[in-house]
Amino acid sequence: MTTNRPRLLRNYFDQEIASYQVLKESRENTAYLSDKLSKWISRTRQSWKSLDKKGVTIPVDFLKPYPFPKEEFLPNNFDAIVNTSQRIFEMVQPKYQLRAHNVLREFDRCLTLFPEVLDSAKPYDILELSSGGCGGAEVAKHFGNTYQATDFLDGRGSVYAPIHNALNLPVIGFDGSKTPYAFDDNSYDIVACFQAIDAYGYEEHYETFIDEMLRIARKKVVLVFNPGLRAKHDKIENGYELLIRDPLIKRYNGLNFQKCPSTGMPAVTICPDDQV
Which InterPro entries has this protein been placed in (predicted)? Predict the structure, then answer.
């Protein structure tokens, strides 16, 4: 039996809806953001229910909006961008603008893929590659872990800067396609990469990227996969099994394949010690 109160979740949703209404009234061309809100509220509710069913107490701080107006998510040239898809590219995706969506999703991932970080008595040093909305940072720090965020900062910089600033979160610039990665051997307990490795290159290059993660990690590498570029480009059926899972099985020992609870995407954990 948990002490989670649905009323707190409803109050959070009411605050988010009100914030987008304020944005819509001041900037008419942002109406499409309000239209997308119901989908991500539903996803957030699913994460809340998943955690509640598992008997997990959800911290009250995980159900608070970001402490800045939604307008800060808009790029400086927002009004000059006519194409809606280009607007989305230039800013934080709508789903990542909801703080509880970010945090509860990562909370559920931690609970399933590396629950050891939720034990405040045993803190871990965590490196997340391509941190995105940084929900993982809030979960990690709440339970006493240290957390290093990374993001692609070249050119225009990170669209997630409003979140980084609000969380007072230092971010290391990172381009996952360029190896070797600029981290020392065995410098973090856990290296996580969630639905980002496909942005680094084709499936045939994954082992190069994972080797780097294993070099950096002392205890564990945690990955969640998106559909790979090669499988999508060449329209390969069973692309995950043929191009990702099976090659990993041949290359690495002690693989623990799972499913990400928040996205349903395939996941795996790999321990460096098993590769000796």
Answer: SAM-dependent_MTases_sf
Q: Using CA atoms, how far apart are residues 37 and 16, in angstroms rounded to an integer? A: 9
Give residue for tokens 């990993």. Answer: 248
What's the pTM value of the predicted model, to 2 decimals?
Answer: 0.94
> Where residue 187 falls among pLDDT bands split at 50, 70, 90?
very high
Cα angle, residue 69 at apex, residues 65 and 74 outer, rounded to 5°? 115
CATH of the domain at 168: 3.40.50.150
Same domain, 50 and 154: no
Query: For 129, which DSSP code?
Result: S
DSSP-assigned letter for residue 67: S
pLDDT value at residue 155: 62
Residue 179, exposed/middle/buried by CB under 10 A (0-12, 13-18, 19+)?
middle
Question: And the tokens for 126?
Answer: 């965590």
Co-location of 173 and 200 in the same domain: yes
Domain that includes residue 250, residue range: 114-270
- Which residues have C-beta within 8 Å of that of residue 11, sequence separation ≥ 6? 63
| Pair 138, 132: CB distance under 8 Å | no
